[in-house]
Amino acid sequence: MEQVVAFVLELDRLKAVTRKVKPLGQDRYENSAEHSWHLAMLALAMAPYAEPGTDMDRVIRMLLVHDIGEIETGDTLFFIEAGRHERKAAEEQAVARILGLLPHGQGEALLDLWREFEAGQSREARFAQALDRAAPVLLNLANNGQSWRENEVRYEQVVGRVGPPIAAGCPALWNHIAGRLDAARDAGWFGMG
Amino acid sequence: MEQVVAFVLELDRLKAVTRKVKPLGQDRYENSAEHSWHLAMLALAMAPYAEPGTDMDRVIRMLLVHDIGEIETGDTLFFIEAGRHERKAAEEQAVARILGLLPHGQGEALLDLWREFEAGQSREARFAQALDRAAPVLLNLANNGQSWRENEVRYEQVVGRVGPPIAAGCPALWNHIAGRLDAARDAGWFGMG
């Protein structure tokens, strides 16, 4: 029980990892813990648009655990390509360490889920990745492109990097987003590069 | 799809609802969104201590949804008895309104889960309630009793109000906590009333 409590207190640190988008109406950056909750709720809400047969409980568990490595590595803007491989390796090490705090090999199933999410091959991982890519887009579309402006993210980067995974994992969501991205570009919400 | 997105953006507001405890090492109050994530992870970690047969996926969904009514009502210190019935009625109305944003009656299953959690009768609800009561205690025990001190919460209030639900829903966790609460009292971490 002491090990379980130590694990849970270690997870508490994810509340201090800040991302690049701001919650609507707030003058602070979103953290990865509340983002993970929001994604799990997004999965529940978007379930009718998942490929038939998708196990939504596995999707939710994946999303709950997908960012815990950031306790050590922090969050990196999705559009930064340089060093991605090294960052992911460091993140996997962190995830393995943190889940290793749980007794009796209890963390192994969660580590497998984390790896499955990262691989993005299974039906559940594709759906979960689509939601993870879409969430900051939905916030930006409701927030005048706040993090795109602040980080000089270009329209082509968003369409090129988040379009394919969203379209692959949740086509209906990409249909919804694609047209709105065009309108956001016309409104000048993106960086010019 | 537009209704689903509107629902998800409405949920974003839970990130602005502050609670009484602070994440460890941070000089700000926890919000109810990151708290909900933390509880879902606590459920995964504490699963071996649940009553056999507990459906952990239902527990997780319950915990994800249990605080969304606070978007309208805010969070109230658990030890405030006055007006509890009225607050819960207002919270249920808020939950019904928010889940009603989802199309095709999709929110009804989540509303049922919210009510099941509040009723605290099922195996899953008892376990989920135990974790919800225990989480701020675990943070306070790691944080010199921060929210107990700030809100003049007495030892007897904590033992009397959170002890029974934790003991009922997760006896092993209460065994762990009870002794530590005695040590916290001896250390002077509680209000004197």
Automatic annotation (TrEMBL), chains A, B:
GO MF terms held by the record: 5'-deoxynucleotidase activity; metal ion binding
Keywords: Hydrolase, Metal-binding
Origin superkingdom: Bacteria
Enzyme class: hydrolase
InterPro entries for this protein: HD/PDEase_dom, HD_domain, YfbR/HDDC2
Record flagged with keyword Metal-binding: yes
Gene Ontology cellular component terms for the protein in this record: cytoplasm
Cofactor(s), by name: Mn(2+); Co(2+)
Enzyme Commission (EC) number: 3.1.3.89
Keyword Metal-binding recorded: yes
TM segment ranges: none
The reaction(s) this protein catalyses: a 2'-deoxyribonucleoside 5'-phosphate + H2O = a 2'-deoxyribonucleoside + phosphate
Assembly and binders: Homodimer.
The protein's name: 5'-deoxynucleotidase
Species assigned in the record: Niveispirillum cyanobacteriorum
